[in-house]
Amino acid sequence: MTGRFTLTTAILLALAATGARADAIRIGVNEPLTGPFAASGTYVVNGARIAADEINARGGVLGKKIELVVEDNKSNPTEAAAVAEKLITSDKTPVLMGAWGSSLTLAVMPKLADYEVPMLVETSSSGKITTSGNPFVFRISPPSALEAETFAPMVAKLGMKKVDFLVLNNDFGRGAATDFGKMLKDKGVQVGLVEIMDQGAQDMSAQLAKLKASDSDTIMVTSAVDQLVLLFKQMAALGLKKRVITTGGSQNPDQIIAQAGSAADGTMHLTTFLPWIPEKTPDPKATETFIAEWKRRGYEFAGVTESFRGYDGIRAIAHAIERAGKPEPAAIAKAFWSVDFTGLNGPIRFAKSGPAGRESGQSKPDVYLIEIKDGRVVLPTL
Amino acid sequence: MDQLIQHLVNTAILGGTYALLGIGLTLIFGIMNVVNFTHGALYTVGAYLMYLAVAALGLNFFLALPVAILGGLLFGAAIEILLLRPFRGQDIDTTMLVMIGAGIALQSGTLWIFGGVAKAIPSPFPEAPLQIGPVSVSWLRLFVLGAALALIGLAYALINRTKLGLAMRAAFQDADTAALMGVNVRRIYTATFAMGSALAAAAGALLGPVYVVYPQMGGLAELKAFAIVILGGLGNVTGAAIGGFILALAEELGAGYVSSGYRDAMGFLIIIAVLLYKPTGLFAKAERIG
Question: How big is chain A by its Cα radius of gyration, in Å?
Answer without folding.
Answer: 22
